[in-house]
Queue: 3 jobs
Job 1
Amino acid sequence: MTTIHQFVPSYTTRSWAGVHSGNVADVLHGMGIESKIFVGEARGVRRSDVHPFRDFAHEPERTDQWLLYQLSTGSLIADALTTRSEPVIVNYHNVTPGSLWAAWEPFVVPEMAEGRHQMHRLAGRTVLGISDSSYNNAELIAAGYPRGEVCPILADYDDLGSHGDSATESRLRATKGGADWMFVGRVAPNKCQHQIVKAFAFYRKVYDPGARLWLAGGSASHAYLRAIENLVAALGLDDAVTILGSASQDIVTAHHRVADVVVCLSDHEGFCIPLVEAMWHGIPIVAYASSAVPETVGDAGLLLQDKSAAVVAAAVHRVVTDGALRMSLVEAGTKRLSELSLDRTRARFAELIEMAIGAGR
Amino acid sequence: MTMSIDTRKIVAEIEEEVRRKRATGELPADFERELDSVFARYAPVGALDLHFDQLLEKIDASTLDTIAPLESSRPLVPQLKLVVRKAIGWYVRYIANQLSATMAGLSRALRLLGNRVDVLEANAPRLAADAALVNVAGDLSVWYDLVVAETKSVTGRVLHAECGTGGVVAHLVEAGIDAYGVDPDDDVVLEAGARSIDVRATDVTDHLRVLDPGSLGAIILSGCVDRLGLGAQVALADLASVKLAVGGRLLVLGTDPSAWGRAQSTVAADLAPGRPLHPETWVALLERRGFGDTSVHDGPAGEQLNPVPAKSAGAAAMNANIAMLNRTLFRPSAYAVVATRTH
């Protein structure tokens, strides 16, 4: 029986890595392939769902065994896998360039740099690279991977967005006084939440003094989070900007249900699940056209080349006030969403696994 | 089912609207700058492109935070962190006090060093009082068509430095291009302001330093590129390579070295701290900084030596020499170098 084990450096149930790896495991089991998830570190999961990598490290090599590595950061797991002779499949989610973090969290930069080095080192050991986006795939090909294919992240957006906290939703609706902006993502320098706050301040001043902004997502950088909190306070936006932190999915969904626009000004995204969540909720998107954002968004949003506060604010104003445009973006989002549905991505992933195994035989 | 809308066209309309409203003052340009400066107060030094004095202000204002955050998504971890924080608080404060004293000392030393550099700069020609006489701006109207053609398709704002009373800026804005200017001379800035042209009173180098990387669609440099010293000219090329977006254009509107002192007053030429560079030198500097697609455009021919009548004795030989002198000494007095930031 063929075995394909997954290796995930950092696994939590609610993170994209947890959601994606769990769905990949379902695909593999559905194909009759034996599969376990080995993790470097795990939080909030049942012991039976995942296994510590040290349990695998000393297992003997097998000719019918494949190694599927979820690459998104630097990890000792990658180096350990390169010492084994089994064929490797790299599922690449991109690694944030350290330069975007250097000023804020210099101690994290070496881990990111190592992730990129490992991505290059794995090229010679990998039979197939599977990327979330064409943007990521281009990096694999440039790094010398023999074959690269694209399969978006396996996520059940119906599951992510179907349950909302009704009390929160009622409160938000009752207090609505203008357009509600939203962004979901870790508070991290590459996500550029500070630029969202600046654009929002400009929007309140020029277009809509009753607007609100909700930033959801746990903190990946305390220094950056504190700078944003200080920025919000200094601009007198304490009552208008809510930093939700790592709120529960129900709370986030409640905010989604009331939001008028999702604004994403990230400098670097390998895919960006929150933009797809916005489509699921029928929210139009205004985004900076960086990295993989344009291909994730498609026609479901306005893609800006210039993210100066005035341009972002004007774009949001247009989306909020132009009903025809809004409807067109929402419809495009629904169409794009169908391309990213779990049924389709599962089928695509299974097809790629078949392809890899066929090529390796 | 609604009709599909061309989102690219909508974005172009939005950018055009912002351009127009910035030009007419409907959008508060000062507020955008204020937002940047407010965030700069809270961002670490490395996240900002600050000049010397701003950097020292940041260092002076910075404090060592000894109260480590407690938040965690894991149960009981905040309480555990609190215990650890209390237990080692005396030690952390001990180290932090010494670090603070060291930082204060370093900051003081840097200020003293800065003062000494200020004295050196004050005695250097660039900051000498007589240098105020230096006004090398020529007639830039000959370049109007070129600057419009080269900047009309860029994404992002167009900066003209030093722009004088804003003739080029006004021409660009009339052509529908989102342009503004900077000039260190307060008088010409006031004159431009009276004509509702967006010109700011600041030095070009200082202005470029505070902009975000990749934030400009095009930069037009004139005046400063003639009179600045070589180090400052190279620094301008460095800054332009960082502040332009990929695909952005740099236009250097310079004076030909052979015309220096002829196209401007000799007093201005003598007192200037630097001299104009040849266009080939700009091309070389820019290509080493990631610019490509470079081209050099000659300005109109100026006054030249006249040939002697052909019937005169030895006219052919004399006219050949005159032609050589014209080529060597009386080349077009101005040139434009155009380059594109390719990566």
Job 2
Amino acid sequence: MKNFSGKALFLDRSDINTDEIIPAKYLTEITKKAMGPHLLEDLKMDGFDPATDLKDIKVIITRENFGCGSSREHAPWALEVNDINLVIAPNFARIFRQNMYNCGMMAVEIDADTIDQLFKKFSAKSADVKTDFDARKFIISADGEETVLDFSISGFDESLVKAGGWVEFADTNY
Amino acid sequence: MGKTTAQKIFDAHRLDEPSKGIEVIKLDAVFCHEITTPTAIVDLVERGKDRVFDPTKIKAVIDHVTPAKDSLTAEQGKVLRDWANRHGIKDFFDIGRNGVCHAIFPEKGFARPGYTIIMGDSHTCTHGAFGAFAAGVGTTDLEVGILKGICSFKSPKTIRIRLTGNPGKEVTPKDIILHIIGNLGVNGATDHVIEFTGPVIGAMSMEGRMTVCNMAIEAGATCGICYPDMTTVNYLWPFIKDEFDSKEKALESYSEFLPDTDAAYARDLEMDLSSLTPLITYGYKPDHVKTVREMTGEKVNQVYIGSCTNGRIEDLRAAAAVLKGRKIADSVRVIVSPATPDVYKQALAEGLIEIFMNAGCCLTNPTCGACLGMSNGVLAAGEVCVSTTNRNFNGRMGKGGMVHLASPATAAATAVKGEITTADQL
Ligand code: SF4
């Protein structure tokens, strides 16, 4: 299983699309690694600078409909090669969400009110997310404050995370 | 409780239900292009799984950047071409015979009522215009599709939208889908199938239905679906005439996938389009929609007419009708990209190409080109383009460029004026 714990980045905007996560001009690259330096390069947001703000980030916490737009799996790959394997949001674009689990990564839905509270409590600080996969809990902490959140994923998504992705799982099981 | 079209299609294709609410279904077709497929092919080769489930059910095209613009895009084309050759994939459309995927595949009769189709391209929802379940997927789903002919989906939930009223003749399918997206929002149909129905759809050509279904993804939908009717059968007839004794028999057979009258919808909407006027987007999301009149007068640098949304023959006819006997403004450049070779030939035969050239437009070969900002008309920073494509995301047609999505008629009128306008304001 991949790593799902570490420093969190809060992106306070809904509908962040895959063109913003990785621009189309990098789609001619054949290796995943080449995506690395260009993660979120075209995301224009006050107070966000991809050149500095992505340092050491392992988890992204954001708003509705993350990953909408183009189907490009380059978006999860750009996250993956930066060792970001977990995104938490109220909901995700279907294809993006499926792509994440298909790569053995996680896109976890937490209701909008709870996400809002996380933003209020932690987004101004340097927060950390600890994922207890078996207990299905996120422990989010900063400056001695802590919030514990239960999450759920389907048995199918769990198998994909454990198998490291859909190709191996499908070829073995079907 | 009755079933929706998508539920009936899933019933006919279900292989497994690995978790409650998640279904693995068998695929009737896997479509491929040279941007997302090569990574899948390279990965399959690396895993020692360079196989295809059925070469007759895989269709491939080079369309996004064609002819290749540099060594990287040449390599992408080559990976796809070599793979099609070594697996005996006969329906591979190489340079000269190629067109934009969601225009050329339907034109060849590859999308049929009741089919399940995936492609590594979000606008695969276009093919739902034929009453198919067609969904865009990422590279891994595409890999498994190629390898096993299967894909996993959540059990489909459906939004039904009944389109009624008598929209004026200046209102095109593009305006209608922009209106729907403006209403639903870009997240309004996420994880849902949309069934588009009602008299407005009934009166629409297959080209128009494809324009509508094409942009279902811009509201987040997995697929847009129109019910098969005589319009569908007439379009498909050259490809299915050996399968059925008559068109009526074909329609009867396709009716299997019509929803039950008591089907359960997540939402059931009716939109009366009587007062609709031509629409255009103003911001960086497809649901940022205004009337063209509200945007009138804004200067543009480029007009783009083409793509899987509006590059079909009816779209070129609509644009040419506006441009006939007129010149484009000196301050703009206009790029027209017929979506397929057949569209191009038809446009030539009808004299449309001559109209475009006399007006001062640049004609390109069939390709995605500028739609995704990779070739043939990329914008410079600060430039504004009125485009018949489907995405106005920041940077989509070139870093720092602004894209306003509109119909071919609005795009052509804007080209004449050099600023945003409707055709009837000329
Ligand atoms: S024309 Fe544009 S939207 Fe359509 S398939 Fe090509 S790049 Fe995608």
Job 3
Amino acid sequence: MAKKKTKTSSPAALPFEQPIEDVRSRLTELEELAAQTTHDLSEELAFYRERLERLTNEIYSELSSWNRVQVARHPNRPLTTDYISNICDDWVELFGDGVFGDDSAMATGLATIGRHKVLLIGQRKGRDTKERLACNFGSAHPEGYRKALRKMKMAERMGLPIVCLINTPGAYPGVAAEERGQARAIAENIHEMFGLKVPIVCLVIGEGGSGGALGIAIGDKVAMMENAWYSVISPEGCASILWHSAEGKEKAAEALKLTASDLLGFGIVDEVVPEPVGGAHAHPKDAMQIVKGKIESWLDELLAMPADLMLEARYQKFRHIAQVQSSVESQALGAASHRGVDTPASRLASPSEIHGEG
Amino acid sequence: MGWRLRRKKKDMPGGLWTKCSACAQMIYTKDLQENQAVCTECNFHHTMHGRRRIEITADPGTFQEHFSDLQPKDRLGFVDSIPYTEKIAKAQEKTGNADACLAGLCEIGGHPIALAVLDFSFMGGSMGEVVGEKIARTVELAEGKGIPVVIFSASGGARMHEGAISLMQMAKTCGALQHYRERGGFSISVLTNPTTGGVTASFAMVCDMTIAEPQALVGFAGPRVIQNTIRQDLPEGFQRSEFLKDKGQVDLIVSRNEMRDKLALLLSYAENRPKATA
């Protein structure tokens, strides 16, 4: 889990990152050389450092939707377990749905994040093969969703706010999952989360795969990391339905409008959490500290709200997401691009607006 | 989440004979229609049009349609083989409806209710923002009048062409039902062939009572997706109503010709429910 620093070099570079990687390895060579020689290489070093920064900026300012999906899945990207060990103190993991079993794909536990004691729920993917198998590659079974709900109800009784970290390719599509009511488990979570009388903040840290993500993503604050994706289906799934092969995944990623800025524009997420330039995988500690700060300030804001108002606002937000109107209503409102409560069309984010104060 | 379930010949065209997709028998089309699209040979409950569903469910002459002017929009600019807008236009022309949900007020056995019916013939009954909005409004209508809501589902799931917006309809509909339940609501979900994906994983599974028609395919993932994942044959009867009943996922199975009477009976049991406190 803590191995990412030791292998920052090659295997993890994404194809579009190769030019960055080339400059980085030059820089590393030069740094090694500088350490061994008495020559002053500071000018060269400065040149390559500047170049590295510029190139990273350039490439990361023009990522395609598919590139973002790749970044969201990057093997060095911080996972739920990393957030637990980096931004949580006094972590007490809690297990089991109380009925059938425990699901490692859904981590639940008590945690202290800065000044707040919370219930943390995080979808767990695992970093190495053994962990990945244990976590079913991040795809939870019904017992995972029931485990989350059981702990959330407990948190409500304890007066603890809930923090959900979303990172799943989707809920598991298997025989046992169907037998144990995958659909109902997800549906009940969505339903019940509207009634929980404690603040809920949800952050998509990597992949927001459809109902499997939504099953822990009803909250007073719903946010996405800058390079996360969130949609009704994965690009591969979409491509295989439309074109009967996963080959069109780049096109599908584009068509699905699944990036953080797309979803901010639709009013589906309240805020996009910026990542360090070069992605969270390149600077995991910095990325996690940004998240920690955000969670603290969201909770400050929500804990100051009366519970009944908070619940009504939570409902109204989802009730009016991308609001459709009857022709009569839209005539009455004039031709202006009214889209219901709190979802101004003008919020389509440009890169500079991405940090939005939400 | 594919709404595109394999389209079998179950639309019952004008032909004199119709082949049952379940038992492969040739059935006299008129018999099939008179039997409410239930196979006279094998009792398979075929998918039926939304309007016809309302006809056989609501007390005659009581249905008043609501929200029929809600029009789908192509917010993503989604294009696959043809643009989504053309797809909508074709489906509208084919069905005469604006989208895949019909909703309104009616009576069943004299009990006033709000009713929503998904129409599989409109893009596989898939849920985009119009379907989600209509379900939510139907629930709100019921909440306002203090009457029960009954929802018939037949859907391939969330509509891919509306991306995350269609995903959010799962949240919207569940939120509306939660709001309604907190305020004394009573809801019945009827699962019909087929109901899968984001519809099963939202409003269809969080009503107070879950009824299924016999042999209806009901699940989260479609059977093909599961087969592709596990690369094994699926168990006999997998994801059919009877299987779900065995696994404790539905409250009861009701055949189509008994549905109206059974709903009326169930609604009568809810007559004395505590009224809204909020």
